[in-house]
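Please predict the structure of the following assembly.
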Amino acid sequence: MIILLVNVVGIALVCLIIWWFWINKSHIATIKIDNLIEIKVKDGVYQPSNIEAKINHPITLRFVRDDASPCAETVVFQSLNISKQLPLHEPVDLSLNIKKAGEYEFTCQMGMYRGKLTVK
Amino acid sequence: MKINNFIFELTGVRCASCVVKIESTLQVISGVTDAKMNFANHTVSVSANDTVSAKTLTQAIEQLGYGATLMEGLEQHESQKEALEHRYYSSLITKTVVAAIVGVPLFILGVIDIIPSLQTELGHLTNFAFGLATLGVLIYSGGHFFVGGWKALRVHTANMDTLIAIGTGIAWLYSMIAIVFTSLLPPMAQHVYFEAAAIIIALVNLGAVLELRARRHTSQAIQRLMRLQPKTARLIRDKEEIDVPIETLQIGDLIRVRPGEQIPIDGTLTEGSSYVDESMLTGEPLPSEKKMGDKVIGGTLNKSGSFIFKASHIGKETVLAQIIQMVQQAQNSKPALARLADQISSYFVPTVLIIALVTALIWFNVGIEPRIAYMLVTSMAVLVIACPCALGLAVPISVTVGIGKAAEYGILIRHADALQQAGQLTTIVLDKTGTITQGQPQVTGVYPVHEQDKKKVLMLAASLEVGSEHPLAEAIVMAAKKDGLALLIATNFQAITGQGVSGVLDGQQTWLGNRSLMEQQHIELGDLKQQADQFAASGQTPIFVAIGQEVIGILTIADPIKPDSKSAIQRLQKMGLKVIMITGDHQITARAIASQVGISDVMAEVLPQDKAGKIIELQTNGEKVGMVGDGINDAPALAQAEVGFAIGTGTDIAIESAGITLMRGSLQSVADAIIISQQTIRNMKQNLFGAFIYNIMGIPVAAGILFPFIGLLLNPMIAGAAMALSSVTVVTNANRLRFFKPMEEKS
């Protein structure tokens, strides 16, 4: 009985991980922006991390890094070929006007901090 | 009246429209001459006369609803930043020490086995106390892992914090269960793992400390460039010289630079002359002479004379600012090699979590007793050995150091892809003019018909050419000036396209031009004809000078080869590269130049627009081509090549079509760039290999795959140490690149 229970719980946990990190991802709260948004870099995450913007529309992403860990020091938009150094506690503005709809991921240098800019 | 400069740090500035509001409010205060806001830094710099106090300005800003603090200057800003970083560093050390103070004694007590058994009352109490102490460590020293892991979890991501938090968290939880519900566990599993939790926390923090230390060096190159930026300039205003912060300078300002001082920004020299050390930007060791009209670059060092220059570029437009920006951007770019690692890293942590769970289940189902203890130890080891950071860091850290290293040598690499490709080139195509040669024609010889006419030949030629802007004319005038010759005034000047010029000097009709001009004027050349052919065959351009119908001599003009072109080309050939010269020149002239620098492969008579086509030809033959040119008329070829090397002159770095810009004119830089690239790629591969091996081999070992065969299990503390050291190893390996010197062979 216990053996079965442990196995069921273990497999359920595996499923939960798969569901939470891969399948259910699209349910993260999306913040729609018009012109400017401040993105906090703190405690290992970008807040907010899921941003939506309009196509052909100028926006400014303001990164404020409050996380002293060196991992947080750069934000990279791989597909846009943009990267910015983020000095501690100093707002860094990134102005974008994206002409192509799609999802643009932004990450730290090591890919541990992750965020997504969706352009529609 | 004295002008004061204030810089305020602002708070509450939310949008770009605040800028106008703040600037205009400040500008209308009487006595304020200028107010400029830096939105990115949230600072405003104000120039005002003596009647205006800092307090007045602060109040004005505060009335608008913003906060303002007077800063002592940029240095204060920098030192604040340093203080913040230092605080983080020392807090990490304290956290490490606290965790070690709890973890190490617990570990020792465990090893010498004097902790009372959980079956006794005393054992319960002591272990419970240890559990509380460890909880303290988890909260104080490891709290950031838990907070970070939780926050990441909420946005459906997982990171290193997640792994550490879960690994140490379950160790603590299991141990507490073992204390409280001892009898539920089989006797052999009645064990606590507090020391493991505390020591893992200590080790990972220690790893972060070491990584932080090592990382300080990785960005050394960029910091060195940033430090080149002087803080103040000596502005000449109303015939007075005042020191002003660099941010307040405007284009057109006149600035004085004394010997031994740094040139504050870019400009054109208007008064005085000097020698300027530009090595920090171009890598060129010899100071260069600066006279009136010459360009000076901000950040370079004035060696000898005092001079005044007119500012031409300020702020982000200066060469130094552009170099910094370009290097920073390139340092953050990723070569193709990194994309795989990137792909992996986004799946990495959840996958590790799954592997840990599966490991636990396997031990539970088929493991030996005490199964529950083995489940815990193995899954904990899996969690803490997997280091996503080392994998993610492997490539970018080498790129940062490699591109920084190149910048030290005046080699600006635009993107990491160029860095990666430069190391794999098989053929180097060199443009002739301005690349192998100096690109500035010079008079190489004066050959009069009668020896006593030597000066006269040059003097007449220069007198005719003094108003012309043709590059050959410039060379002639320059040579005459150098000899200190007094020139005559030409009348009836005429330029004959493609042939030369004529005019009346001292009442006599004088001709200057090539053979076809002489023939057209029916001027007899005699023996000079043969001599001229010889000059042409050796790569020099002969020009005849005639008075009336009589030739009085020949001038030869050539574009001299750069002094180190030959040795650099030899070096490239020794590196196994095929070196080809490409030029629009006539075959004979081209061959003459090529043989002087040891090149046997020549593509001559190639029109500028056909150069790219020649590169494509080479590429279809399977060559990986590096094209070196001056970046102006070679742009299509530079863009077509796998790697375009643009020879900059130190002032124009914005050569878009080239992957690599060489600030120093020398071809040695091409070899340096290739060697630095090769070294960086090798370093990157070492890092990637290390990180992959580590994570791919480490995880199954931690899971206990070797246990059935050789009885090996990884202690979670060892796994923790390995994790802590992996990022440090990667960073340290990348740092080795800093000490590498691309040896320039002396010939």
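The two ends of chain A are 52 Å apart (CA to CA). Residues 101 and 119 of chain A are 5 Å apart (CA to CA).
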